[in-house]
Structures are given as structure tokens and as C-alpha cells.
Here is the input.
Amino acid sequence: MELVYTIADLQARLSQWVKQGKTVGLVPTMGALHEGHASLVCRSVAENDVTVVSVFVNPTQFNDPSDLAKYPRTLDADSALLEACRATLAFVPSVVEMYPTPDTRRFSYAPIDTVMEGKYRPGHFNGVCQIVSKLFDAVHPDRAYFGEKDFQQLAVIRAMVKQLDYPIEIVGCPIVREVDGLAMSSRNARLSPEERENALRISQTLFESRTFAASHTVSQTCRFVEDAVAAAPGLRLEYFELVDGDTLQPIANRRDTSYAVGCIAVFCGDVRLIDNIKY
Ligand code: PAF
Here is the structure.
């Protein structure tokens, strides 16, 4: 697997492959790769001739500078994982390479991007759209792969692709969980052993809420999750919303939606974790 640092080198490689009629899959990441990322890369390798994985901690999507500073950076381990998954190329640009001048573009997909993460992390999705569109413009992939753990991000990216008419198939891939159920996340690496144990209540609560929801109303289910997280040691709930899986808008009644998703954001110590479950 090759490591490439500039858009010019990336495009030189890509043009050879495209001339040969090869299909290109893109897996955008911020590094600190784990089995969840591996599942995206393996899927892309299975479905495309060439798989490009970008590894770039994108500053414009962080609204909290300390969160950006603490984001894990593990390029050697990342390269080993990508090699093992048989990715073709890792694109590892610098901040100046991706943002030679400040990106002043504004992306707005209300109401999809104004609720939940959009409400609690203002500007986050604008930064995500800035970098993902730059990657799409640099790579021109046939397909791009994103994890469903970032359920709202996937919806925002689909909205961007529709609005800007990118000829790219967006492939959403299922959440990958640790054996005990915790959703895999690069941020898990920042949890102390005690916090790691506390964090387990997040996925447990979501699984329990699915059973609970079968015989209770939406507001009772929200209350169930809020109470369970409040009772769990070391966790602080930022939000839990039961939303329509397509519009991301809160639902009042399960009958109002073809499928509902429970989305949660929780602080475990100072590490912010998100997860979701389909009902
Ligand atoms: O999901 C992520 O890791 C990031 O938001 C993404 C899509 C790579 C953009 O920086």
C-alpha cells in the first residue's frame, strides 16, 4: 500500500487507474483506525478495483479546540491496518494541503443538520461537508463508504451529494461493536479503564430501550433512556432523540415513521461518545 501526501500525487496515481477503466472506492477517515474502519475498507476493497483511504484530522469540523488537540493520531498503526485490509492507497494530507486558504463555503441541509449533533456541535457538519466535498473533488470516487455510527453525518452527506449532484454512490455500513456491545470509536482509546466500563451502559441502555419501546410510547422510551443514563456512574447525557430514520426529525409516535432510530450523545468523563439503534 502506498502513502501519498499531496493532491497532485494522488491525482497522478488515480489518472493511471481511471485510464485503465478501474473503479475507485473512497473511505474518508480521521485516522486512529479500528475494526469499524476496517469493515468500511474491506467492503470498498470487495466492491472496487482501487480503494483510497484518506487519513486526515479535519480541523474545520471541531467546534472544541481541546477535542481537536486530543484527537488520537496513530499513523503507523493505521498504515498497518490498511495494509492488512489491502487498501490500495492512503492519502495523508497536511492541513495546508487541504486548506491552502480558509474555506468560506457554507453548507446547509436544514432541518437534517440542525438537530442533535447540529444543535450541540454548531458548525460541525459544515466542516464535515467542506472536507468531504474536497475529498470527492480530489478523488472522484465511484463509491464512498461511511459508518452508520455517525448516522446523522451519513444523512447530511447524502443530502450534500444530492444537492451538488455528485455521481457517487454513498454506501452506509453497519455499526461495528466491541464484543460487549460498545460501539467502536476512535475516541474509545481516550477512555480510562473505569470510563471504559462506565461507557458500556450506553449500548446496553440502547438495547434495553428497543425492548422497552415495543410496549411503550416514544416519550416513555425517551424517559427510560434518560433515567438509565442518569443512574449510570460517570455518564452525562447530552441528548437522546427518537427520530425518523430519513428526516432525522424527532417523532411523537412510532406510527409516524417507516423506521425510527434512537440517537444518543453521552459524556463519559470528558470523552464525548455517540451511538444509535434502529427500532
Ligand atoms: O466520520 C469521520 O471520521 C469524519 O467526520 C470524516 C467523514 C472522515 C470527515 O472528516
In short: The CA atoms of residues 14 and 20 lie 10 Å apart. The chain has two domains: 2-173, 186-278.
